[in-house]
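My current task is to audit a protein record that another person submitted. Alongside the sequence sits a line of tokens, each denoting a local backbone shape. Where you disagree with what is written, explain briefly why. This is what I was given:
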Amino acid sequence: MDSSETIETLPALTASVERKGSRTNIATNSVSIGTDTRLFHANFIAGQWTGDVFALPVTASGVGSSLLWQASQEIPAPAQRRLFTYDGSGGVAFTWANLTAAQKTNLGSVAVHGYLRGEATGERRNGGNLRNRNAALGDGINSSPTFVKDTNTVYAGSNDGMLHAFDANTGAELFGFVPDGIDWTGLKSLSDPGYAHRYFVDGAVIVSNRVQTPDKNILVGALGRGGKGIYVLDVTNPDSFSGMDVEWRVIGADNDMGHVLGTPIIASLNNGKTGVVVANGINSNSKKAALFVYDITDGTLLAKVTTGAGSPTSNNGLSTPRGWDADGNGTLDFVYAGDLLGNVWKFNLGAVKASDWGVANNGKPLFVAKDANNNRQPITGGMSVALNPVDFSTWLFFGTGRFHDAGDRDNKGVQSMYGLIDAGAAITDGRQDLLRRKIVSLGSNSGKVVRGFEHGSDFDANKKGWYIDLLAPPGGTAEGERIVGDAAVIGQVLLTASIIPGSDPCKLAGRGFINALDAFTGASVNTAFFDVNGNGVFSDDAIDGSPIGSIDLGVGMPTTPAVIDTLLVAGGSLGAVGSIAVTNPSNTGRISWREVIGD
């Protein structure tokens, strides 16, 4: 990656200043709590630039503190590790003999290659001249762990240059893969004692199930901040993964392909194929927002839909896509995604011919997110799509804000949460078409900072949705609160995680809230969602007479939460995991069952 395109919000710490942090979402092996329910969480040590993946037990009372396993302690000896790469024509074992001449030149020496495999004999502490590490596993900053039930495997990307596969029961590394789309000239820098942090395999991972790809599990990984493109592996048998299982990849050849930060979608398409849907991400050469659709079997580009939004002076890119099966027949009909300029795009993939796919609403955005002063609000997280159970209207939910660059930290521009009705036409009058809602209360309960949304007001049927500005009550103070993760609808509750970065650029702190509100009114839920005081009774979890709608779990800036039965869990920037009891959303069921998501 060109240094001019570095995307960096981490503190500039030297190896002598070490801080634990996390920015990834958690993964779980179940949506219900049983005897072997566990969650998987990644963190990193800033300054040392090593990382880890952990497994923790989950019970009805919360997340256990005793580790079930710690991946950094389960890495095999360097010679026994099953590591692979791509040599320009296919997958090969990651041995010095198998590397191309260019790859060898980029790494520089056999010693550096051994270092990447985990060899410690060349480190300074052992008399060599290579960077000391406390573990061979590198930092996984933005590549969240992904659990695959079919094979009981956890996958996570890392900035040691590899995708890693771990046994979900033991944490043992099953294999690692070094994509060719990353900056191989930069891999050598990992061994430099003066190493300054760089990104390598830092993007989202999604794996197909064996219904989507019969009898197979196909992994699609985004390079994220480490490169422009994706890589695809057959991970049906991770225990015996080999070079033959390296399928295809797309790397930087297209001017519209950028750093893919959103999770791709794997879905059945209306042309009869199973596809991989990829939002182009940021820093493409064209600086425009675009959507790519590939055939999962061989990487054939089925369609590229460009929005035309963006320019060299107005850098744009498409964020995490969300799919929608409008007719419920199992195929992907529409894709929604936001961009850095605040545009909400609806892509129509309903036709049988891929050549007929395009941007809905005559090529115009469905909506443009702007604050009260007409400033565009960037959309960097994923959306959620759901049916209103009252009138079966299609709703779209998302938050605004960005946290890509060092300059984003101090930005106090007003960001918002939105709920929009997609009635088949663009919402052209912006906020005038939406009902304004507010955060009205701020206080504490059982040692936690909590907030309340306005309560008791019906939704105006003449409006096309609602919005809430992320302003601190009671005075409506802009604190830099923003939403950069995915929205989710469970039952009729909309869940988001909002973050407020800390002012000190040399710390990984900050704070934020898990927010829960009525998805289809934008107001407070009617029945309390959080059991803040932990007494098992929800009726007393109120603020100023309304159910508590936001809570700071004390984990720093929270990541996207997950709900396991009656327990909500979320990680945070301090490297910890927080949890809280919630009302059982299965009482109403997941109403966004037609949503096609990349996780």
Q: What stands out?
A: The longest helix spans residues 101-107.
